[in-house]
Design a protein that fits this description.
It is a single chain. Strand 5 and strand 6 form a beta hairpin. Helix content is 43%, strand content 22%. It has two domains: 3-156, Jelly Rolls (Sandwich), CATH 2.60.120.280; 170-274, Arc Repressor Mutant, subunit A, CATH 1.10.10. The chain contains ten helices and ten strands. The strands form two sheets. Strands 1-2-9-4-7-10 form a six-stranded antiparallel β-sheet, covered by helices on one side. A four-stranded antiparallel β-sheet has the order 3-8-5-6, with no helix packed on it.
Length: 275
């Protein structure tokens, strides 16, 4: 019988740029499989020992110790353990508006969903470190930092290494400038035109860059960014909904509540009750 451990991250930080949802470990039975099916989040697997096969699209990938694969949201996948040497793997589920960008930097996609770990010792320790962090009062913060370390390991494992000090492409520079402007101005009355003018681009073109990078328009990105911040502020019972609204750039609490529910699926007050 398979030995499996599963850890679900408690709700709370549910609207972040990158958020850890769950992590686990499994020593699979011979020929144990999952799928074909789809998931609604990114799930990175790392193989500690044994062998197995991943099927995505019309491609087949034979993997073993020190390698791994990623499940992409809403992408059909099937994977199974070797009947003679079944694999043992750990996995890490996450989502967020930055998740797709990190996968792009790691060159992980439906066309290439597998990787060879650059630092196998770091990947070997990651699951255990998350379990240990979960027992501590600051465990949510520690596990969030470990998730970013996972992103760094995946990027360093990409076939084409990023050169330190290399100049960013013009597109990447514009996107980062826009995100930085939003970070500095989300609490003020800031329009999409303001962001585009700060970067020096036509707003339609800049929105297209965000669509290409994050899968959403500039307006949707900025709205989600503001609601992410609002969700964090709503965890503070000392702040009223009106004060939270003003803190993320809304002078009309009713409009803020409408936008918050559109993004999160619950009202600001409902978010507090759920948490």
């Amino acid at each position: 019988m398979s030995r499996i451990e599963m850890n679900v991250v408690p709700a709370g930080w549910t609207q972040m740029e990158l958020m850890l949802l769950f992590f686990g470990w499994e020593a699979c039975d011979p020929a144990h499989y999952w799928g074909p099916g789809v998931r609604d989040s990114y799930i990175v697997h790392y193989i500690h020992e044994g062998r197995g096969t991943v099927y995505m699209g019309d491609q087949e990938y034979k993997l073993s110790e020190g390698q791994g694969f990623v499940i992409l949201p809403d992408t059909l996948i099937h994977y199974e353990a070797d009947p003679q040497e079944p694999w043992t793997y750990s996995w890490f589920g996450f989502k967020g508006i930055q998740a797709k960008a990190f996968m792009q930097r790691a060159q992980l996609s439906a066309e290439r969903p597998v990787y060879d770990a650059h630092d196998t010792s770091a990947m070997e320790r990651l699951y255990t470190e998350m379990v240990q962090a979960s027992t501590r009062s600051e465990g949510d913060v520690l596990n969030q930092s470990l998730l970013y370390r996972l992103m760094a390991e995946l990027i360093s494992s990409s076939p084409v290494k990023e050169v330190i000090g290399q100049l960013l492409s013009n597109k990447e520079t514009y996107i980062r400038q826009a995100v930085q402007f939003m970070e500095n101005r989300y609490s003020q009355r800031t329009s999409i035109l303001d962001i585009a003018q700060a970067v020096g681009l036509d707003r339609t073109y800049l929105s297209g860059l965000f669509k290409e990078r994050y899968g959403m328009s500039l307006q949707s990105f900025f709205l989600e960014y503001r609601m992410n911040r609002a969700a964090e502020l709503l965890q503070n019972p000392g702040l009223s909904v009106s004060e939270v609204a003003h803190s993320v750039g809304y002078t009309d609490p009713l409009l803020f509540s409408k936008m918050f529910k559109r993004v999160t699926g619950v009202s600001p007050k409902g978010s507090r009750i759920r948490d």
